[in-house]
Amino acid sequence: MKTKKIMSDFKGKLIVFSAPSGSGKTTIVRHLLKQEELNLEFSISATSREARGLEKDGIDYYFISLKEFKNHIKNDEFLEWEEVYRDNFYGTLKTEIERIWALKKHVIFDIDVVGGLRIKKKYPEETLAVFVKPPSVDELKIRLKKRKTESEAKINMRIAKASVELATAPQFDKIIKNYELEVALKEAEDLVSDFLKKQ
């Protein structure tokens, strides 16, 4: 059974932040969510992977089984989805956008590059797609190691993927260089604020 197209009286905007792992997009998104005047609500992604560290179901992600994830795909219940690593799926359920628009809020995404570009393609007018660029791939590796949440092999996989992701930056509406966090936060705030003022 196909799901209905997203329905809501309130037509909010979609704010997408994408970047390689360790670029600081999550820090930027959390900062923006604290700015009440922006009226943002976080889009919680679904994933088939296990929770890491202090992650909580329904707050950081919707943690679902691989079988359940594939059923959602089959039923066309995702706005976008991707197999990021083997049997490691991430996606945005259409019901998540409905939930947020029902609150009369704009949706903000902390999402991988492929997913971000898919949302922009589906909603070109309503979406601001922002790419967060790290100072360098070496700096990314340092940041990922500092997290101490993944093995060396997993970090190396992320670094290899980051090189590919960095090449997609020009396809985004805006690029924020996260070399100095305070500067990047201010730039992100201004970008989002300006975009939301446009009708």
Please tell me about this protein's structure.
Strand 5 and strand 6 (88-93) form a beta hairpin. The strands form two sheets. The protein has a five-stranded parallel beta sheet, with helices on both faces. A four-stranded mixed beta sheet has the order 4-3-6-5. The protein starts with 13 loop residues before the first strand and ends with a helix. The protein is α/β, with parallel strands linked by helices and 199 residues long. Helix 5 packs antiparallel against helix 6 (152-166). Helices cover 40% and strands 22% of the residues. It is globular, with a radius of gyration of 16 Å. It is built from seven helices and nine strands. The mean pLDDT is 89. The protein has one domain: Rossmann fold. The protein has helices spanning 25-33, 66-74, 94-102, 113-122, 137-147, 152-166, 181-197; strands at 14-18, 40-42, 45-47, 61-63, 78-85, 88-93, 106-110, 127-133, 174-177.
